[in-house]
Design brief:
about 525 residues, alpha/beta, Rossmann fold, seven-stranded mixed sheet, six-stranded parallel sheet, globular
Length: about 525
């Protein structure tokens, strides 16, 4: 047994059984060892940003880490944007990053880089296993660290010689941490503060937006306390039978208007809300003047236990409000828009579906009618780095093969990680991809005005438009192995989406809006 065997044995022993990979020469021992570990599912990704985003989608749905296999510093660097998103989602991931042999590092070969420094910003744990005997212990530490709480990417650097040298080291079982409940004193303090406040709000995020915690938050809403959710949440139930808290608006001025008059903000599973960007003359912190801020449940604490204890202490009803099942009766007609597409999505989305949302300015048109669609879950863009919708869908489909996955993407966002389509086809994953093609970075046109920079002139417009040349999505998808259709009317989208929901396997729909 060599170091690579010891690594795979430890990962599998700790239920890490999916590997999203883009390997190179330094990782060949790991690749060879896969033949001796059939429990590990290897998934080839043609770009590291797909591998890291897929590991994020897998971890969000499986509640356990997948591993990535990345080729030295440049390979890791290619995956950084979606590891940034994963860090903001607190997703458990174990990155395995190949490195030059320990004795070869000194010669500064062309692919040599300071991997330890590169991984630091987006890793909650990072070590280099410089001896094969160190591999199992460090691999188990990486798994444990990835769980947190609250969790995130852990990075294990594996030099080539540590992978190929023999070892007798046995697999090590990670000690998984447990989320502690908030102390009784925190519950008591929050009860007192809520009773004193005239217009309190509870802001929830992270694990406080998962199904069991939402049920407890609904009890608080039934008691008369306003509940809001973060703008972007890693995983949240939506549709019939679920509690639908209002969402913190994306734009800061809209958020502050929504919070006008609030005198107490209680945080559960999240932190103080801030504006996504700074704007001239506008505040960064989205807490109204004179409003007290109280952290009740930290990101690493048990939100279900905390919210339940708070609801009990306040004497809240045992059950709170939930959304009715109310699909649109009539099929949409006329020119295609996000709102028309949203009607079709709400009509045909199957129960238990997983929606991976990177649709940017088109997202609201889908979200509103989906509030009363069949119960489903939504994985959102937590870190703001677009290009995650397709990779998230890859990982979610591997983690939950019996559930339909729908990937919603802006056209600019989809071009970041287009290679994911090939992996969807290769693995025959049950994913329907929708790309909203408006031939523009529309969000940037909006933001340019908001920053006070003014409307785009002829030179600036060259950096904001995608229509010259027009991206031909259907042949692109076909060329990467997916059946594809272009829809220009609501009727065409209705037919295409209904058909995709009724069959298994990958499908691509261009929604020309």
């Amino acid at each position: 047994m060599n170091g690579a065997d010891a690594l795979l044995a430890t990962l599998v022993a700790n239920e890490v059984t999916a590997c999203f990979a883009n390997p190179g020469t330094s990782e060949m021992q790991f690749v060879a060892a896969l033949d001796r570990r059939p429990e590990m599912r290897p998934v080839l990704c043609l770009f590291e940003g797909v591998a890291t985003g897929a590991a994020d989608g897998y971890g969000r749905m499986a509640d356990k880490p997948a591993c990535t296999l990345l080729h030295l510093g440049p390979g890791y660097g290619n995956g950084v944007a979606n590891l940034h998103n994963a860090r903001r989602a607190f997703t458990p991931i174990v990155n395995v990053i190949g490195d030059h042999a320990t004795y070869h590092r000194q010669y500064d070969a062309p692919l040599n880089s300071d991997i330890a420094t590169l991984v630091k910003p987006n890793s909650i744990w990072a070590r280099s296993a410089d001896s094969p005997d160190d591999v199992p212990v460090l691999a188990a530490e990486a798994v444990a660290a990835s769980y947190g709480p609250p969790g995130g990417p852990a990075s294990l650097i594996l030099p080539a010689d540590a992978a190929w040298l023999e070892t007798g080291a046995e697999p090590v079982i990670a000690q998984k941490p447990v989320r502690p409940a908030p102390p009784d004193t925190a519950v008591e303090e929050t009860v007192l503060a809520l009773r004193k406040a005239k217009r309190p709000v509870i802001l929830i995020g992270g694990h406080a937006c998962r199904a069991e915690a939402l049920a407890q938050a609904a009890r608080l809403a039934a008691h008369g306390i306003r509940v809001m959710a973060d703008t972007f949440v890693a995983r949240q139930p939506r549709g019939a039978g679920t509690f639908a808290p209002s969402r913190m608006p994306y734009f800061g001025e809209a958020a502050l208007k929504e919070l006008e008059g609030v005198d107490l903000m209680v945080l559960a599973g999240t932190t103080m809300p801030v504006a996504f960007f700074a704007y001239p003359g506008r505040p960064s912190v989205l807490v109204p003047e004179g409003c007290d801020l109280l952290e009740f449940v930290g990101r690493g604490e048990d939100a279900v236990a905390g919210l339940a204890a708070l609801a009990d202490a306040l004497g809240a009803p045992r059950q709170g409000p939930s959304q009715p099942l109310k699909r649109p009766d009539a099929a949409p007609s006329g020119p295609l828009s996000p709102q028309m597409a949203g009607i079709s999505v709400a009509r045909h989305l199957p129960e238990g579906a997983i929606v991976c949302d990177d649709s940017v300015t088109s997202g609201g048109g889908i979200a509103v009618p989906s509030m009363t669609a069949a119960p489903h879950e939504v994985l959102a863009l937590t870190g703001g780095a677009i290009g995650i919708g397709l990779p998230l869908a890859v990982g979610a489909a591997v983690a939950a093969p019996d559930r339909k996955v729908v990937s919603l993407n802006g056209d600019g966002a989809a071009m970041y990680t287009l290679q994911a389509l090939w992996t969807l086809a290769r693995e025959n994953l049950d994913v329907t991809v929708v790309v909203f093609a408006n031939n523009s970075y529309r969000i940037l046109n909006i933001e340019m005005l908001r920053t006070g920079a003014g409307a785009a002139g002829p030179q600036a417009a060259k950096l904001l438009g995608l229509g010259d040349p027009v991206i031909h999505w259907v042949p692109l998808a076909n060329g990467l192995g997916l059946p594809a259709v272009r829809c220009t009317t609501a009727e065409e989208f209705e037919t295409a989406f209904a058909r995709a929901m009724a069959q298994r396997g990958p499908m691509f729909i261009e929604a020309a809006i």
